[in-house]
């Protein structure tokens, strides 16, 4: 799974999705699609955007939560923080392998 954390932001659309969640957490896939297409042009289709939150959720930088019939996505900073802690502060106990 740690390898997935590194691969998940490899696609440009996934990086844009993460940027959108940094700006505003709790967005549905429809909201993410609308914001990405509005900001970055019609070259991004809904179909192209829809699969990326699931990939990010599987790698854990994004968490999904149900609200009635809708699923909202939130940024989960724990995996990248763990990676940063491992190399930026190697003397801390949680960074030990």
From TrEMBL:
<dbReference type="InterPro" id="IPR036390">
    <property type="entry name" value="WH_DNA-bd_sf"/>
</dbReference>
<feature type="region of interest" description="Disordered">
    <location>
        <begin position="61"/>
        <end position="97"/>
    </location>
</feature>
<protein>
    <submittedName>
        <fullName>Transcriptional regulator</fullName>
    </submittedName>
</protein>
<feature type="compositionally biased region" description="Basic and acidic residues">
    <location>
        <begin position="69"/>
        <end position="97"/>
    </location>
</feature>
<dbReference type="InterPro" id="IPR036388">
    <property type="entry name" value="WH-like_DNA-bd_sf"/>
</dbReference>
